[in-house]
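hiii so my PI (J.) wants the whole complex modelled not just the main chain, which honestly fair. so below is everything: two entries, each one labled with what it is. i double checked the lines twice but i was tired so who knows lol
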Amino acid sequence: MAYNSKDTAAFKGVWVFCEQRDGVILGTGYQLLSEGRKLADDLGVELCGVLLGSGVNEQYAKALGGYGADKVYICDHELLKDYTTDAYTKVLCDLVEDKKPEVFLIGATNIGRDLGPRVAARLHTGLTADCTHLDVDVEKYKAFLKTTSTIDVDNTPFEDTKNLKMTRPAFGGHLMATIVCPDYRPQMSTVRPGVMQTQAFDEAKSQQTVLEHIDVQLSRDDIHVDLIEIKKSAKKLVDLIGADVVVAVGRGISSNPTRGIEIAEELANVLGGVVGASRAVVDAGWIGVDHQVGQTGKTVHPKIYVALGISGAIQHLAGMQDSECIISVNKNGSAPIFDASTYGITGDLFKVGPMLAEAIKGFKAAKG
Amino acid sequence: MKIIVCVKQVPDTSGVVAVKADGTMDRAAMATISNPDDMNALEAALQIKETQENVKVCVVSMGPPPTESMLRECLAMGADEAYLVSAREFGGADTWATSNTLAAAIEKIGVEQGDIVMCGRQAIDGDTAQVGPQIAEKLNLPQVTYVTAIDFQDGVLTVRRELEDGYMTIKVQTPCVLTCIKELNTPRYMSVPGVMECYSKPYAVWDYEALKESKWVGPVENVGLKGSPTQVYKSFSPPVKGKGTMIEGADKAACEQLVSMLGDKHII
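here's the output for the full assembly
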C-alpha cells in the first residue's frame, strides 16, 4: 500500500533522531530520549532511537536504551559517516515510510534544523521548529499552562486528544505558541538543545535495548554535494548548557566591552562558572556566538545566573528564566530583567561586579 | 545565469512588540524591516553578479501588498527583477504551505542549469529556518544551509557551512538552494542611481490565479491556512513573575548583604 501521511491510525510509536558527529552521540539525543520516554509512556507505545552513521558502535546504541529507548534502529553505511542532507533525508524517509512512527523528534542543532524540514517536506507532514515543551496528555498540558501562562485553564475548553502539543516561543520570544499537527503523521518537532533534562542512565535497561539493523539503500548518486572537509573550531567552546553557574553580560558593557567581559570572567571564576552573553553583545562582536544565551542562542538552567547589564528582552529571558537563582545588576531600576530575578541590585556593573566578586571571595574564605 | 533570492518583510521584533487582546501579534502596529538574513542572501547574489558575466538577480517575496516597498529597496540595492506573490488564499500559511507557494513562484520564474536559489537562514518573526530547505525539497534541488562563505568560479560552487563547533566545506551541484547567515557578508545600502531606477525595473505581482496551475499550488485547499499541516492550538504570553528581592544600595555593604543572603539559602 502506498505511504499516506494522512492515514493517522497507521502510525505508532515515538522516535528520536540521535545525532552523532565523529561517531560520538550528541547530548541532545539523550535529552530527547528522556523526554520521548515520557511521551511514549503517556501514549502506551514504544520509544525508538534512530542512529545513522558508519561503523556504528553497538555499545553506543545500547547506551541509548539506558536513557529510555526500547529499541534502536541502526542505519550503518559508509555514506552516512558524515552528515549530508541528501543521504540522511533519504535514509530517514525510507525508514519512516516503512515503520510509520506517530511522533518524530529531532534536536534543533545546525544539522537537525537542516534535516528536519527536508524530511517533513518529503513525507508531507508538519514540523514545529525549536520546541521548548512537549505534551501528549491534555491534563499534563493544562498543568504546564497553569504555571507558564496567563490562561484561565480551568475555564477554558481543551480538545481531549493525544495529539502532540508542541510549545515554542514565537515572534522573537514575545509570545508562546502551542502547535499541533492533527491530520498528518508523523508529528515532527525539532527541540532546542539543553531544554529537556537528561534522566539518569539506567544500566539494566540499557542491557535490554533491542538493536535492529536496517538494510540501508543508498548510493553515491543519491548525494548531490561533495563534503570536502569538516574543520573543528580551534578554540575550545564554552559549555553553557552544562554549567552550574553562568555570568552573563549585556549591552550594559558597551562603554568598555573588554573590561565588562573581564569582570564577568572574574565573577565566573569565583563562582565556578562560565561567561554568557546577550544577543546584542554577540551581534556587536565582543564575544563569540557560543556564549549567546536566549531564544536564538542557548537555553540554560544553571543553579546561579548572574545578569550584568542585561535589560531582559523576552528574547533573552526565553533562554535563562528557568535558572534556579537569578541575580541581576543593572543601572536602570525598572529594567525588565528585575521582574525575572531572585535578587537585584540597581547599580553600575563596572563598580558592583568587582565588589560582588570580592564579597564572594571573602565569604568563601571565611567558610574555609 | 540567474540567482533567485527569497526575501521576507517582517515585523521588527527587536523593537516594541504590540500584542492584540486575543494574544496574536498586532503586525499593523509594528514597524517592518527586511528580514536580516535575507539581506545577506541578496548581498551574496549581488556580489556574484559583480564578479561574473551575465548574471541576473531576481527577488521574490510572499506577503501582503505593502511588501512592495521592501522589493523596491532590493531593486535599489541592485537586483534586476522583483516578484511579489500576494493573495488572500496564501495567507495563514505554515512553512509547508509557504514553501509550496514559493516553489511554484520560483518554478514560474524558471530555474535552469547553473542557477542558484538563495534564502536567509530564518526570518526573525518565526525563527523556524524551515522554508529554505522545504523549497529545496519541493524543487528537488540540493541544499546547503547556514552558509558563511561562497566561492563560485568557473561554474563550480563551493561553500562553507557553519556548525556549532566548526564548519564544513561543501562543493554543491547547481542548481541548488543556499540559506545564508549574517557572518557571510555585510549587506550594502541602496545606491542613489539604484533608487532612481527601482521603479523602472521589471516588477510583477502574482496572485492565486497566476500560480494555481503549478503542482505545488493547485486547489485552494492546498495553500495558505487550509493547506497547512500545522495549526496553532493555543497561544499565550508568559506570566509576569513577581519582582525578586531588591538589595538596597549598590556599594560594598550591599554586595556583602547579597552574598550573606545567598549563603543563608545555601546557594553559594
